[in-house]
Write a structure and sequence with these properties.
- The complex is a heterodimer of chains A (283) and B (226).
- In chain A, helix 2 packs antiparallel against helix 8 (172-190), helix 6 runs antiparallel to helix 10 (204-221) and helix 7 packs parallel to helix 13 (252-273).
- In chain A, 75% of the residues lie in helices and 0% in strands.
- Chain A has one domain.
- Chain A has helices at 3-24, 29-44, 51-56, 60-79, 88-103, 113-140, 145-168, 172-190, 192-195, 204-221, 227-239, 245-248, 252-273.
- Chain A is globular, with a radius of gyration of 18 Å.
- The model of chain A has no long low-confidence stretch (mean pLDDT 91).
- By secondary structure, chain A is an all-alpha fold.
- Chain A has 13 helices and no strands.
- Chain B has 226 residues and is mainly beta.
- Chain B has one domain (23-224): Lipocalin, CATH 2.40.128.
- Helix content of chain B is 11%, strand content 44%.
- Chain B has two helices and eleven strands.
- Chain B has helices at 29-44, 120-127, and strands at residues 61-64, 70-77, 81-87, 90-95, 105-111, 115-116, 139-150, 153-162, 165-180, 184-195, 210-224.
- Chain B has an eight-stranded antiparallel barrel.
- The longest helix of chain B is centred in the first third of the chain and has 16 residues, at 29-44.
- Mean pLDDT of chain B is 80; it is low at 1-27 and 39-50.
- Classes of the chains: A mainly alpha (283), B mainly beta (226).
- At the A-B interface, helix 8 of A face helix 2 of B.
């Protein structure tokens, strides 16, 4: 275990989440994620190129990071009531489409028209649908702390498994960045220990769902995560829509008893399908 | 007794080709006779076809014969040993006038996916965003910007692009020889070192799991097909 790398990837988002959520409340969670992800990128590899530089010299991972920052800013705008709620789904879909298009802009230059429409067009719909699905899942739950902790913890586990999948898909860097996003959410949930309250807002579904779908698709298109495990992972959040309505309003443990198997089974299948051959990264 | 070259001697920092001076044992006559059938078979085997350009070449234009050009790299593992790999697909073209080498140009293209480190799984990781980011950057390219002749040898300055980053480097290129086999052929070899972190490939550098210095050896056989 390389603790130095682990620290560089997880310390910035954890510190950002603990500070911002403790001092300014859960509404600052997307900002903490954006700051944590940006700093983690810088400490793990190099400071990401700015968008104006990426126009002429695109880099998929850097665009992915900026896409996550855009999703975070959109969420923050909703938290701060700068964006009307009725506009939010359309704005989320736009962020999803533009983020994915930019992330794939360089690899897509070698694709056929069919591949571009399938992977960029279809992928945008998938990312937007994942954002809105997670938004619905969070919105269905009561706002009380215990309920929010259950949803937040489960989604942090989902993102952690995504990170593991990305490492198995041959990119430690993508895995570390996704792990940074998971660490933000996990640390924010942890603040309930001393703050005695934690709230996960429906709008947070935009950046959480966006992170899940964009990172898994990045694993497929920018690295070597095969489609089968990616498909199982991408499907996982949608299964939360099948939690019976009665359980949505239930106590956290009852809800988790239904939600955990629904989400974790496909993710564990994905991990099994992407299981490593011996000597992974053994130089 | 001839001095054997150490690895440091053939390091890139010198930019000089020093082939190991090894005293190979002379084959005994009987063994030579036993080898004769194998030599005959080898001679009879079809020669790898040279790259044939789609358009006729000019008087001083050359193309790299991919079948006889190679790119080998070596990098330190755990600060303990050199491990080596190759890029199996090396293509290129050059404009070189023997009487005015300074006015020439060289372009080299190496397919990133042709990396072979003797471990398929590691090759996949080398292609990922941790290293070459091969899906976004399928080629490593070198384009000369300035050539300085030193006899038949060359000092070439050019832009090396890989993993989405470009850096200007200057390399010493040594003339190996000239011959004729289905076209005029001219061979060059260069050894140089780069820091992979300059190209954004920082995986394993801090812990010295994989060295930052990557030593490259590129051997080009240029051909003017008849």
């Amino acid at each position: 275990m390389d603790y130095d790398v682990l620290l560089r990837g997880t310390a910035p988002p954890i510190v950002a989440a603990l500070l911002l959520v403790s001092l300014a409340g859960s509404r600052m969670l997307p900002l903490a994620m954006a700051i944590g992800l940006f700093v983690a990128h810088g400490l793990l590899k190099e400071w990401p190129a700015l968008p104006q530089d990426l126009w002429s010299d695109p880099n998929g991972v850097a665009w992915l990071m900026w896409g996550m920052v855009a999703a975070a800013m959109l969420t923050l705008a909703q938290h701060l009531r700068l964006l009307p709620a009725r506009v939010a789904p359309g704005a989320a879909a736009a962020v999803a489409a533009v983020s994915l298009w930019l992330m794939l802009s360089k690899v897509a230059t070698r694709w056929s028209g069919v591949d571009v429409s399938l992977h960029v067009g279809g992928g945008s719909v998938l990312v937007a649908a994942t954002m809105l699905t997670v938004r619905i899942v969070i919105a269905r739950r009561p706002v009380a702390s215990a309920q929010a902790v259950a949803v937040g913890a489960l989604l942090a586990v989902v993102l952690s498994i995504d990170a593991a999948l990305l490492v198995l898909g041959k990119s430690a860097f993508l895995g570390q960045l996704c792990g940074a996003v998971a660490a933000t959410l996990g640390a924010a949930v942890f603040t309930v220990v001393w703050r005695r309250k934690f709230t996960l807002y429906a709008a947070d579904g935009i950046w959480i769902g966006g992170a899940h779908a964009l990172f898994v698709l990045a694993g497929v298109h920018l690295s070597y995560l095969p489609w089968w495990p990616a498909g199982f992972a991408l499907a996982a959040p949608f299964l939360l829509l099948f939690v019976p309505r009665g359980f949505d309003q239930a106590r956290p443990l009852r809800w988790l008893a239904v939600a955990v198997p629904l989400v974790l089974v496909p993710l564990l299948v994905a991990l099994w399908l992407a299981r490593p051959e011996p000597n992974l990264y053994d130089y | 007794m001839a001095r054997r070259s150490s690895l440091a001697d053939i390091g890139a920092e010198q930019f000089l080709v020093k082939l190991p001076l090894i005293d190979y044992p002379r084959p005994e006559p009987m063994k030579t006779l036993l080898l004769l059938p194998a030599i005959l078979v080898a001679v009879a085997m079809p020669v790898v076809e040279p790259v044939v350009p789609s358009q006729p070449l000019g008087e001083h234009e050359w193309v790299a014969d991919a079948g006889h050009s190679s790119c080998v790299f070596r990098v330190k593992h755990a600060n303990a040993s050199w491990f080596m790999g190759t890029f199996d697909k090396v293509e290129g073209k050059a404009t070189l006038d023997a009487s005015a080498l300074d006015k020439g140009s060289v372009e080299l293209t190496i397919a990133t996916e042709s990396v072979d480190s003797n471990d398929k799984q590691r090759d996949g990781h080398l292609m990922s965003p941790d290293f070459f980011n091969g899906k976004e950057n399928p080629e490593i390219t070198f384009k000369s910007t300035k050539i300085k002749a030193a006899g038949k040898d060359l000092e070439v300055t050019g832009d090396l692009s890989m993993a989405g980053k470009t850096k200007s480097i200057t390399i010493s290129v040594v003339f190996v020889g000239e011959g004729e086999s289905r076209g005029l052929r001219r061979g060059y070899i260069t050894r140089f070192a780069i820091k992979r972190s300059d190209f954004g490939m920082t995986y394993g550098v801090k812990k010295n799991m994989l060295g930052d210095d990557v030593h490259m050896t590129v051997s080009l056989e240029l051909v003017q097909p008849k």
